[in-house]
Each structure stands twice: as structure tokens, then as C-alpha cells.
């Protein structure tokens, strides 16, 4: 056995339990790799009486945060309790006391990452957060280390397991939105309040973190145009399928001439696209680099052991840094001026579903509106809804966001027309 590296864990829920289990199960390998016996000394919980999934021998359970944060023997804090305000406060205290920090908290890193990184640097501490994006997929270190030599052009991710599970159930098993959500909650993928999952916020936070690492730009959550899956209905799923697509909640960060555009929302993916085959709670991140071309990283985006593997990999990096005396370097040191791509420079195909009054001349008016905005049609489907109304589906040619907004704004002014769905379409 090597020297001891003592760890304080904040939280003993899904991820905390996994961390404790993996450190115990893989102790010998971890010790060989790091030269340290990484040992959990104290674990912070809300309720010490609660039944736990694993034995609590070998460490102390406490409800008093200062027992952990002020313990001079604890060199590393693992924050897996969630929340923003309290977790931020505890992490800042730990860093100021010279303790290294590992966290799985994407909400906190997306919102307060800058501040935490600065405090970690001031105190020469490590701050790692591999588990905050895509659970068990080691995507952050891949972007920061393995792809460091390349110029990343685009990152597309299915990074929310709950919504991917729901959309798979709705597409493959014809489940309703409500049935699919209930199942995702019962299986434990959804956040305590699933709003952040279904409204795309969880995915947007993960995209903010990946964008900062991939492009060096300090994007904020407000910079991400975010849409969720509440509006996706059976009709869109079926029509998209007939047209050769699957609907998935995808986060995209794309660089164009030194600026970046980040968005999260339902997109139509060609059924042959590698991301279309990512089903149920799995996640995948599709990275395009100027030199490497297209790469995809796939795996479980949540869950006890997959997420804990990422947390423990961070702990191993802290231990290795401690051995070499190289703690305190930022997880990502790549920086680039933050610039946002203008609407005129963001190009995509779009899928639109609208209803319109079924009378002579209305369709002509619709085509005129799109032609005036310079938006061309790639595909059009029209079906009668009843004697007076028609349902129209349009897939546009690649068009700028500015042009599409001009056309849809004009359509919305027409009393005979109403747009229900407007999703991006991925090509290729
Ligand atoms: P969880 O199952 O709800 O566990 C939270 C743990 O933290 C519980 O043990 C709870 O204590 C403790 N806790 C919460 N607030 C506390 C407080 N104020 N004081 C003391 N203890 C407190 O959560 P989780 O699913 O493990 O998630 C933890 C973090 O990992 C979150 O930031 C989450 O976003 C992130 N994450 C989770 C997953 C996943 O698959 N679950 C994947 C990636 C990232 P009690 O047990 O006594 O109630
Ligand atoms: N609620 C999240 C998801 C958990 O469904 O992906 C993992 O971050």
C-alpha cells in the first residue's frame, strides 16, 4: 500500500454510493496506478439513519458539513450532493482551505464555473468535473487532452438520458409523452424536478461546459437557445419517420469563422446518422475536428456506477498530480475570445408543420412569403385535416436563421396560417 490520500464525500445518494463502491472494489488497481491508498474518511448526508446501498464501515457519516470541510487530514472533497447555492459555498470553502475538489455538478459548473476555476487556481488546487457531462462517457478529458492537437469545428450531443429515453419510447413503442416521462422517473434517470430535463435546461448546461472546453469560449447559459421536448407530438414523430428522420433532443455547438453558436432543441436526424442509433437513456457526443474528421463517443449518460467511474477518474488524476507535485493546473487552459455567430451566419434546414385554411390561394400566399424571405422548399407534404383545414409539412433548403425568422414572422401575421412545429434538420 502507498501513502494515504484521504477523501471527504459530500453526498451518499446515487453517485456518492457508486464512488464509495468503486473505490472499494477497484482499490488495488487504483493504488497501483496512483501510488496512493485513496480512502474515504467522512461522508456528508442529510440523514444518518437512512438505509444505504453499501456498508458504511471504514468511514464516518455526518450531517455536519464542517466535520468534513475543516478536517485537516482530508485532502480532496468529492461533491456529489447536487444543488447550486450550498454546493458552491462548500466547494469555495474547500478550495480556500487548499483542498482539491471533484464534482459531478453540471448545474454549478455551468453557472459558477468561472468563479470556482479562479479560486482553485488562486489556491493551487485541482478542480475536476468529468462526470458533469454525459455521466460515464469520458468526453471532457477527450476534448481537453486527446483532441488538443485538433481544431474542433462542431460538437453535437445527445446529453440528456431522460429525454432520449422518452423519445425512444415515444418513437419505438408509441408511448405517450406522459407514459414515457413516468417510466423515466421510475427508473431514476430524471432529475428530482424533471423540468430541467424535458425543457432542455440540463442539456444546455452540459453544452455550455463542453463549448467552453472545445472552443475555449466563455459562453453562458443565456447564450444557448434552448427548447425542450414538451411540444413534440405523435404526428411530428410519424411524419419525420416517413421522411427518413428520427426526432432527438440534440445540443449543438458549432464554430464559424471564429464565432460560436450553441443551441439545444429537438432536431430531425437522418435515420442513417450515427446519433439516430443512440437510444433509451444512452448518451453520445459527436465531435467533428478539422484534422480528425468525425468521431463519436457513446455510452451511459447517467446512473450510479457509470457516473462514479468518471468521478473516480478525476480522483485518480488528483492523486497522480499530487505524486508529481503538479496540482493546480486548470482542467482546461485553452482560451479564445468569446464571439457569437450572427443570425445571418447560422445556416440549417428546417422542418415546419403548420395548419392553414384549405381554400384556393392560401398555399400560393405561403410560398410567396417564403420566396420573399429567400427560403426554398426541399420537401412539402399536404394532408386535409377536415373540409376547411389542411396540415402542411415543409422541409426547407439550408437557410439562414435570419431568413427563416423573417418567413415565420410573416406566416404568424396571417390569420389563415398557424405554425405548430419548427425544428432544425441535420443533413448528411
Ligand atoms: P441524490 O441521489 O439525490 O443524492 C444526493 C445526496 O446528497 C444524498 O445522499 C443526500 O443525503 C445528500 N445531500 C443533499 N443535499 C444535502 C445537504 N444540504 N446536506 C447534506 N447532504 C446533502 O443525487 P445524485 O443522483 O447522486 O446526484 C448527485 C450529483 O451528481 C448532482 O449534482 C447530479 O446532477 C450529478 N449527476 C448525477 C448523475 C446521476 O446519474 N444520478 C449523473 C451525472 C451527474 P441523504 O441521502 O441523507 O438524503
Ligand atoms: N437527469 C440527467 C439525465 C442525469 O437524464 O441525463 C444525468 O446528468
UniProtKB/TrEMBL annotation:
Example of a GO biological process term: methionine biosynthetic process
Binding site for NADP(+): 10-17
Organism for this UniProt entry: Listeria grayi DSM 20601
Enzyme active site: 206
InterPro entries reported for this sequence: ACT-like_dom_sf, ACT_dom, Asp/hSer_DH_NAD-bd, HDH, HDH_cat, HDH_CS, NAD(P)-bd_dom_sf
Name of the protein in question: Homoserine dehydrogenase
Family: Belongs to the homoserine dehydrogenase family.
Molecular functions (GO terms): homoserine dehydrogenase activity; metal ion binding; NADP binding
CDD domains: ACT_HSDH-Hom
UniProt keyword list: Amino-acid biosynthesis, Metal-binding, Methionine biosynthesis, NAD, NADP, Oxidoreductase, Sodium, Threonine biosynthesis
Pathway: Amino-acid biosynthesis; L-methionine biosynthesis via de novo pathway; L-homoserine from L-aspartate: step 3/3; Amino-acid biosynthesis; L-threonine biosynthesis; L-threonine from L-aspartate: step 3/5
Source organism, top-level taxon: Bacteria
Database matches in Pfam families: ACT, Homoserine_dh, NAD_binding_3
PANTHER family linked: HOMOSERINE DEHYDROGENASE
Binding site for L-homoserine: 191
Substrates-to-products reaction catalysed: L-homoserine + NADP(+) = L-aspartate 4-semialdehyde + NADPH + H(+)
Residues given in the record as NADPH binding sites: 106
Enzyme class: oxidoreductase
PROSITE patterns documented for this protein: ACT, HOMOSER_DHGENASE
Amino-acid biosynthesis as UniProt keyword: yes
Cofactor: a metal cation
EC number from the UniProt entry: 1.1.1.3
Domain ACT: 351-428
